Amino acid sequence: MGAIGYVVHYFGNRYIAETEMALIFHRRVRALIEAGDGELVPLRHTEGIDLLWIAAEVPCRLEEIDVPPGTDLDAARARWGLRCHKSTATPAAARFSDPVPVSDPVARRSASS
Question: pLDDT tens across 63-78, in order?
Fold first, then answer.
């Protein structure tokens, strides 16, 4: 079927985000981690908007909210607190190209020395 949204896990908190927002957030997280930088990144989720500090040493991961084929998408989205609209599922080709890289701060320090 496809992802109807994403759960962002951040320091023990769970944020439920629309697919579009999660993809934007993920791209920024990847760019920051790959550059070895850190900054506040906005995340719009079902409870509002938060600025999350993103850096290599900060635990953050995204998890797809998948539904089985034949599921009532509007009901599934409502259960997660997501908006109901026609573009409810993201095809596999539009999802993340790669996982967020796991960085090892020790390896980065020794590589830059």
Answer: 999 988 888 888 889 9
